[in-house]
Each structure stands twice: as structure tokens, then as C-alpha cells.
Design brief:
mainly beta, four-stranded antiparallel β-sheet, 53% strand
Length: 127
Amino acid sequence: QVQLVESGGGLVQAGGSLRLSCAASGRTFSMYAMGWFRQAPGKEREFVAAIKWSGSRTGYADSVKGRFTISRDNAKNTVYLQMNSLKPEDTAVYYCAADSVPLRTAVVTTITEYDYWGQGTQVTVSS
């Protein structure tokens, strides 16, 4: 059974930074791409960032490009999301997710391609 546990959320002022972490267990972490998604109240869950299994390729939503950075440490089975220049519209519950296909060439941004999800961590950005 795959387990994903997020941490690092909290309350921050606009312009501030947070670093989210997601610790994975239960299967060979280094073989699967990882993604971050978020869901604001009353809105659908949306793609934020993803990273290839090897770490050699990343993808971002337009709304976070240049402000957020996804990375991974396969030795620690952990994926990170560094969030800088935070805005009130970044307020949401942030979820990490694991790709359903091992060693995929592309970076996937579609929710349905991810088969394991964490419980989420709240990020609140005050204006």
C-alpha cells in the first residue's frame, strides 16, 4: 500500500514563502513521477506541478510558473514544492500524488493519471 504524507503547510503573508514536503512509502519511489495539485474552497482540484521519475523534467501550471519549484530526493523518497512570492489566490489544500505508470517518459498533468494521493496540507496566504 502506497502512503503519501504531506507537511509544511501553514499561514503566510502575501509575498512570503513556504516549502511543502511529501514523504512516500510502499513502492519504489524513484520509478514514478510525482505531482502536486491544489483545491480551493468551491473549486475543482487543479494541477500545480509535476516532476519526472528521474527528476530530469518538470512541468508547471501557468499560474505558478516562475514562483514555484518542484524537486525530489529519491534517496529520501520525498518530493518538495518550494513556493515563493505567494499570493492570496494560492490559498488551497495542497495534495501530492504519485503517477500510476512507472518510468513514464512524459511529465503528466492530468489528475486521472495519478493513482495515489496524500491527505493534503492547508496553505493560507493572507493579503
